From TrEMBL:
Keyword presence, Acetylation: no
Protein source organism: Nocardia fusca
Gene3D superfamilies: Homeodomain-like (1.10.10.60), Tetracycline Repressor, domain 2 (1.10.357.10)
UniProt keyword annotation of Transcription regulation present: yes
Official protein name in the record: TetR/AcrR family transcriptional regulator
The HTH tetR-type domain, residue ranges: 8-68
DNA-binding region residue numbers: 31-50
Keywords: DNA-binding, Transcription, Transcription regulation
Length: 190
């Protein structure tokens, strides 16, 4: 006997409630019971979808960040800048900037959660940027010997570092500077 069809309305209501509560209460203050009450959903329906608060918050992170951040318009700098500015905006202008440090701390002790976050959020996002970089290599825009994995780490690292430590502001200028610094290192010369 096949299982029930997943009701996307429940997913939408739960994610919206969780996002609102994260904005108001933060990661530590969020409970599944609060999410259930706010969404008008029974707790078991939430636990069937997300086995823990951590997993639900990971789904909210995916929702906030989106999964297709880097377009490939043929203008690598513009594409990367747009992607990094969107990342800055998500970390600066939503609860994501406050949630991410606590969620990262949980990743250290929860390999399943780490794999979920990688496979559903960061892996797909990285792949879109990797496609844009490979296309730039094909166009002769950047050096064919470019270590794409290193570039993927390097272009976003200053943004995530500031989001995690909050020692300096997140800004569009940071996104632009990060992109320009990385591109200066990998642009094809001659």
């Amino acid at each position: 006997m096949p299982g029930r069809t997943r009701d996307e309305r429940i997913d939408t209501a739960v994610l919206a409630a969780a996002r609102t509560l994260l904005d108001a209460k933060g990661y530590a203050g969020l409970t599944i019971g609060q999410v259930a009450a706010s969404a008008g959903i029974h707790r078991p329906a939430i636990y069937r979808r997300w086995p823990s608060k951590r997993h639900l918050v990971a789904a909210v992170v995916a929702d906030l960040l989106g999964l297709e951040p880097t377009p490939d318009t043929g203008e690598l700098r513009a594409d990367l800048t747009r992607s990094m500015r969107e990342l800055v905006a998500a970390l600066r202008d939503t609860s994501l900037g406050r949630v991410l440090p606590a969620l990262v701390a949980d990743l250290a002790t929860d390999p399943e959660l780490r794999e979920q976050l990688w496979s559903t959020v960061f892996g797909p996002r990285r792949e879109t940027t990797a496609r844009a970089l490979r296309a730039a290599i094909d166009r002769g825009e950047i050096d064919p010997g470019t270590d794409i994995d290193f570039v993927l780490d390097a272009v976003a690292a200053p943004i995530y570092f500031r989001a995690l430590f909050g020692h300096l502001p997140l800004s569009d200028e940071l996104a632009d500077h990060s992109v320009d610094t990385v591109l200066a290192a990998i642009r094809r010369t001659g």
